[in-house]
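Reposting from the mailing list since nobody answered there.

I have sequence plus structure tokens for a pair of proteins and want to know whether others read the tokens the same way I do. The first protein:
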Amino acid sequence: MEKKTHMISEEHLYAIALRECKLIGDITFYKLVRIFGSAKETWENVKKEYKKTNGIGLKIISDIGNIDHLKFAEKEIKFCQENNIKIRLRHYNELPSLLSECDDAPSILYQKGNFKKEVKTLSIVGTRNMTSYGEKFIHDFFIETKSDQYTSVSGLALGVDKEVHEQSINHHIPTVAVLAHGFNFLYPSKNRKLSEKILSENGALVTEFASSRKPDRENFIQRNRIVAGISPSTIVIETGFGGGSISTATFANNYNRDVFALPGKITDKYSQGCNHLIFQNKATAISSIKNLTESLGLGKYKHQMEELFPQNKSILELTENQELIYKLIKKNPQVFLNDLIEKTDLSSHKILPLILELELLGKVKTLSGRQFIAI
């Protein structure tokens, strides 16, 4: 469909009303507007022309046409106009392009502030209980990439998210906060000043939730798919088992995006989630900030300088088994785990920890499908 100029129009009214209908989720919404041509046409014709709906059941469309939803949409538009909030429609190609590619992309994205669609985005997430280890990594990463053109994305939570937004602002990198509620709220309230700073420093706040939606628990998981879908890469700094960042990494994997995780000691609670993502081949281990920025296509100028003035690197001593696995991977690029098992007579539960150790040393990289290459 053609992109319209960004005026709040009749189509915005019907889109909000349609999305408010019970049982109409983002995937069904998108199917219907593609069949009927617009949200307005869907609203007015779906029941008369039910045979067109390609298997979308009567129960699902039963709430379309409910006048209460139009009244809700009128109030929402008034709120957006009064608070300088843009209403982005997926079917008008107004979402960030990578996000729009996701099957379950939000039908509507409410946006406050500036978000340049053409600038590369990088999602960075982690625990609310950030340690000094995670904090130092974030500081070092932003120092390394301060000359690069990109926009950071996180979730405005306490801990890692807050640090990501603050360091972005400190280094004049635009930052986008994805909220798990409507613009009538700000959660956590401690981050109100930070949210204002994000807007004043050329960043944005975005949400798929209408203004009256509170920060309910389930909204946070739903929000995480936007954080994952909006960027080609997601970095997980620190997280425990079952932390919210695990869901963001899972969404990123499902969208075929790159995931990087900061490994840590197996005894550290907030490294266990990252270590597990690496162990399951759901994330690439971050072995150094230099290797990470190279993988992301950032920090290029600095790295060229390092090549002109190389630093002395201490030679790493590998154990006998590490050496064995490393040589096999070097000799057989993109070798599969099963092939390593055959060539070494070692079991997978002995080989995988060795590979993890080699990844941490920056000697080996894991590819999808349990394939490995030497770096």
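The second protein, same order (residues first, tokens after):
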Amino acid sequence: MAGMTSSVPALNRIRVGSAPDSWGVWFPDDPRQVPWQRFLDEVADAGYEWIELGPYGYLPTDPARLAEETRRRGLKVSAGTVFTGLHRGPAVWDETWAHVSDIAALTQAMGASHLVVIPSFWRDDKTGRVLEDRTLTPQQWRDLTSQTERLGHEVRERYGLRIVVHPHADTHIDTEENVTRFLDATDPDRVSLCLDTGHYAYCGGDSVKLIETYGERIGYLHLKQVDPAVLARVVAEEVPFGPAVGRGVMCEPPAGVPALEPVLTAAQSLGVDLFAIVEQDMYPCPPDKPFPIAERTRGFLRSCGV
């Protein structure tokens, strides 16, 4: 009827993007991954304006070249990503900082303001080999929280970026219990959370509840869904994360859980600007598979109001 507005609320604080992950990219260089030029072409053609850097070295690391490649496609960078093992204490700081500083510098040069921090895996995501105990000792928890605070401080001071720690399957920051323990033990001024809806569901968590309970700590979102039937089998068989992805545990929205509309509505209600970056883990995948999914997912998110 003329003059009527859509019943979908405008979630005007949410900025949507996608990432190399949604094109099956997990590594800087892998013959089973699409070339970076194709990723940039297709992510723009699918209707996204924001991207993450993905694995360092996949996209050009020269800031001038990357700025030109993104600019001419109408793309902007929301964040870089680093991998850390900070529960191992001060002994790994120098090694960690060497990894972080290159990525933080590129992230800053691209005009982004966030650095996604992923904890190290206790189980190898390719081979399934157990690398260390899945439960941290009290001392390891103290090292994890104190060293993450240190990272947050240094990244802010030197590069003007805010770290957002990403709870992830097969890491020590995974379940509701461990995520809330981590948040309760870290300084909100130094450490925020990248809530990945798929990983949190994979580990049994409720994203809406976390946003409602720890809203002031949510600094960034990854939008992802899990297939409940595949997840049930993966959990029952104790399948590592990498092979679980190969089985299709992460699925195209809106086919899985959690429902993304309530998550986005809860995020909007926080009253702050948030990135919501689509990540559908699909490594490895046929090169022609990601683009149609990306187009459909962008259309679905528009129907949710973003």
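Reply #1 (J.P.):
I read it the same way you do. The longest helix spans residues 138-159.
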